[in-house]
């Protein structure tokens, strides 16, 4: 479905990404782990066409994401959820307005306008909220509820891949656990693929079948989560795991 091959990016002579290569298959949940400044968000921005890689290719079902027409077509299929849900929502808009903008952009051509309310009700239920949230503004929601709305907004497009860029970082630990459970459920019920970006290996490991370990812009290790956790090959991966007090559940 997605093939990233040889992607490099340099800012002011600093190589932020070097020859990054990986794939994501339909329904797969892939974790991208690396410390702050390792290039994770730059990679996400390249995938969303918010940045241009200096080198390399990104193919979506065999067509280059650099091609404008492919890029436009993929906007619906590849969605992103950012770290700070409050900043991702317009403070002057109700939740209904935020969802409506996505609906107009991605669904208006194939759904009747009157279907909008049914779609929103279903999506809010899917993310553990209800219709009463539609009339609320971001300041009337907790940060965790805002993130649920951001996830619902990403789902409006019926994407095949969601990039979750540090989407749990602004949440406290108990709310993180609820959102992880929500993402697991959505993964199972909607067969959506994830690229789950985080610096927290415990969180990534609880959600992802496969891991990419990014260190100073280079993918130093990739493979099945359980294999990497059981037998990390690269010293950087070993150092990440050494910082974890106990391994996630499936080791
Ligand atoms: N637009 C830019 N111009 C110049 N340098 C940039 C730009 N964007 C990112 N960088 C630099 O590229 C490096 C990687 O940044 P990036 O945001 O991709 O890291 P990250 O792994 O996502 O970090 P974090 O986990 O803190 O978000 C950093 O050194 C950053 O300062």
UniProtKB/TrEMBL annotation:
- Domain ABC transporter, chain residue ranges per copy: 2-241
Gene3D superfamilies from the UniProt entry: P-loop containing nucleotide triphosphate hydrolases
User: What does the UniProt keyword field contain?
Assistant: ATP-binding, Nucleotide-binding, Transport
List the PROSITE patterns.
ABC_TRANSPORTER_2 (PS50893)
InterPro entries reported in the protein's UniProt record: AAA+_ATPase (IPR003593), ABC_transp_ATP-bind (IPR050319), ABC_transporter-like_ATP-bd (IPR003439), P-loop_NTPase (IPR027417)
Concerning SMART domains, the annotation shows: AAA
- PANTHER family the UniProt entry points to: D,D-DIPEPTIDE TRANSPORT ATP-BINDING PROTEIN DDPF-RELATED, TRANSPORT ATP-BINDING PROTEIN
UniProt protein name: ABC transporter domain-containing protein
Highest rank taxon of the organism: Bacteria
Assigned protein family: Belongs to the ABC transporter superfamily.
UniProt entry tagged with the keyword ATP-binding:
yes
